[in-house]
Fold this protein.
Amino acid sequence: MNFHILTLFPDMILQGLSTSIIGRAAEKGLLSIEAVNIRDYTTNKHKKVDDYPYGGGAGMLMQAQPVYDAWKSIADRIGDKPRTVYLTPQGSVFKQNMAKNFAKERDLVLLCGHYEGIDERVLEEIVTDSVSIGDYVLTGGELPAMVLVDAVSRMVPGVLTNDESSLAESFEGGLLEYPQYSRPEEWRGKKVPEILLSGNHRKVEEWRREQSILRTMERRPDLLASAELTEKERKITDSVKDGKNAP
Ligand code: 6GU
């Protein structure tokens, strides 16, 4: 999968994504990550990429021309109109299912804004998806773009090893992950739950499933409605929610 990131800070993107699992996958050729510097495409003699907003107001806006020309240089290279994601607090809040969906693309263009935003006309021209990473304000779209690249990349076949595989982790099946423990068996007086030392694989799986459900109920009850639960599990969570003891 090929990521093409339009940004004023290409070094930030490349540095942030060159290590660990994503860096390894890029070295293996499973991913490519290209950062295109929007400033390289300005026709302004002072290399200026921003200007004041018409109508007044605080801050500066990124101008349409350099953004469009930088995007066009990518679009011309990869053919047809590429899926182009604008990182903005006004976008749809990023979710695991969006990561899975983006991972099906061969090429994905990401547009990072800075300053107070980007001239609306170029957004209308090139953007196919708008994505936010949560309800808080950041200074630019670079960190969100890195978050998106990471989450999408790990959905690309071969990027995770078997060990790192995403089968039983947070958000798979819409539940949070169960608690985990490694050596030693006792640390600062705290013991590893007995069941995990029992060697009874079926009991361990049952316990983990129960922990996932309890954790989700306690910490993210909003996830439960769309979680994949068996009929029996659904009855139990519903009855707890309704304040009853048993289904
Ligand atoms: Cl995608 N961009 C900015 N600037 N701030 C954000 C965001 C994106 N998502 C949450 N806050």
The chain has two domains: 2-153, 168-241.
